């Protein structure tokens, strides 16, 4: 009985060890955003203020700003407070119309 227990324990540990392979030498913990964009500049994206916050308008604003990513926020919505220089924030009102454009 003890041999069976030891065998099953060793087999289980071997299987778990296979799942925990170390990262390769070229892997990084936080990958770069890639070729989509870079540092945000909200000024050119001000052109979308007053428009509906549709997916195509959000993408248009992201491209205009040069940001790597964009997010839509409702007024008063709880958000994370970390500053991200590569992110465009589009603030929309209750009707979904863009009222402000900011980086961060």
Automatic annotation (TrEMBL):
Span of the signal peptide: 1-20
Q: What keywords is this UniProt entry annotated with? A: Signal
**RNA-binding as a keyword?**
no
**InterPro entries from the UniProt entry:** Prot_inh_I78
Name of one Pfam family that matches: Inhibitor_I78
**Keyword rRNA-binding among UniProt keywords:** no
Supply the name of the protein: Peptidase inhibitor I78 family protein
């Amino acid at each position: 009985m003890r041999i069976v227990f030891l065998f099953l324990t060793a087999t289980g540990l071997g299987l778990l060890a296979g799942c925990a392979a170390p990262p390769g030498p070229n892997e990084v913990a936080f990958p770069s955003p890639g070729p989509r964009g870079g540092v945000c500049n909200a000024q050119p994206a001000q052109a979308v203020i007053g428009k509906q916050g549709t997916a195509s308008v959000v993408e248009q604003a992201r491209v205009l700003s040069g940001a790597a990513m964009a997010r839509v926020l409702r007024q008063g919505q709880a958000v994370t407070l970390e500053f991200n220089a590569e992110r465009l924030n589009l603030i929309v009102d209750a009707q979904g119309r863009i009222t402000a454009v900011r980086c961060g």
